[in-house]
């Protein structure tokens, strides 16, 4: 498994709120802390910032990020690096009749970074579950 | 730095090594002697297991005087973690929280 192919996680949800309001929740550090994580984000391209999760043994809980795209009320993107996995998060807002389609794509996962185990056949699932909590500390 | 998943798996397939690694992850850096006290196997056996863990990148050794201190390197587990399913459930949860916050926010 040494392919360079990358994969992404995409989540889309229509929310009954205008794009401007959602944009505020996505880009105001105080609001971001309430639904995402503690941070020192600023909506300025090139700004480096951190998300801070609860520290765990052997992991300080820090996610390193850099703002890549800021198009008010439309597109927000930042890099997202933690524990050796480098990815990019892109938020896209599109107005709909009932509110806003919110799309989040986190991309950059390499094929060799995902699911390299067969939980059932190895009897690993429980063990891996515990390890994920140890290293991730994100819930 | 990145270790082949196979090497990581093989080294953790042994229950004694797994217990040693989990203990180091939980309790922080320790000497071979302290690890031996609770391992239920001899000190040479513990040292041998630690060498295997070290080759897989799962532990780091630090020599101080005549003692060797071992510490867990959880980063080596990264190849084992299913990051996509982890982040998928993470973001689903955060979408719920985002929507909850929007409901509470002033217009």
Question: What can you tell me about this protein's structure?
Answer:
The complex is a heterodimer of chains A (139) and B (107). Chain A has four helices and seven strands. Chain A has helices at 19-27, 29-35, 119-122, 125-136; strands spanning 6-15, 38-39, 48-52, 62-71, 75-82, 85-96, 99-110. In chain A, strand 6 and strand 7 (99-110) form a beta hairpin. In chain A, helix 1 packs across helix 2 (29-35). The longest helix of chain A has 12 residues, at 125-136. Chain A starts with 5 loop residues before the first strand and ends with a helix. In chain A, 21% of the residues are buried. Chain B is α+β, with helices and mostly antiparallel strands and 107 residues long. Chain B has one domain (5-81): Arc Repressor Mutant, subunit A, CATH 1.10.10.10. Helix content of chain B is 61%, strand content 13%. Chain B has helices at residues 5-13, 15-27, 32-39, 43-55, 83-104, and strands at 30-31, 59-64, 67-72. A three-stranded antiparallel beta sheet of chain B has the order 1-3-2.
């Amino acid at each position: 498994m040494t392919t360079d192919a990358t994969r992404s996680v995409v989540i889309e949800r229509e929310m009954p709120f205008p794009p401007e309001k959602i944009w505020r929740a996505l880009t105001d550090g105080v609001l971001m802390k309430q639904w995402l994580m503690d941070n020192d984000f600023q909506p300025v391209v090139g700004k480096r910032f951190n998300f801070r999760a609860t520290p765990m043994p052997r992991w300080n809980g820090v996610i390193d990020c850099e703002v890549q795209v800021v198009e008010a009320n439309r597109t927000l993107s930042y890099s997202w690096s933690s524990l050796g996995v480098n990815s990019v998060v892109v938020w896209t807002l599109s107005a709909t009749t009932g509110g806003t389609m919110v799309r989040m794509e986190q991309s950059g996962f390499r094929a060799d970074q995902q699911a390299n185990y067969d939980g059932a056949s190895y009897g690993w699932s429980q063990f891996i579950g515990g390890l994920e909590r140890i290293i991730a500390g994100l819930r | 730095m990145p270790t082949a998943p196979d090497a990581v798996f093989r080294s953790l397939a042994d229950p004694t090594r797994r217990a040693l690694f989990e203990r180091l992850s939980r309790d922080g850096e320790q000497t071979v002697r302290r690890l031996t006290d609770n391992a239920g196997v001899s000190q040479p056996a513990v040292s041998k297991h630690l060498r295997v863990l070290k080759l897989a990148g799962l532990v780091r050794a630090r020599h101080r005087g005549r003692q060797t201190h071992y510490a867990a390197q959880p980063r080596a587990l990264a190849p084992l973690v299913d990051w996509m399913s982890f982040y998928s459930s993470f973001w689903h949860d955060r979408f719920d929280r985002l929507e909850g916050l929007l409901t509470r926010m002033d217009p």
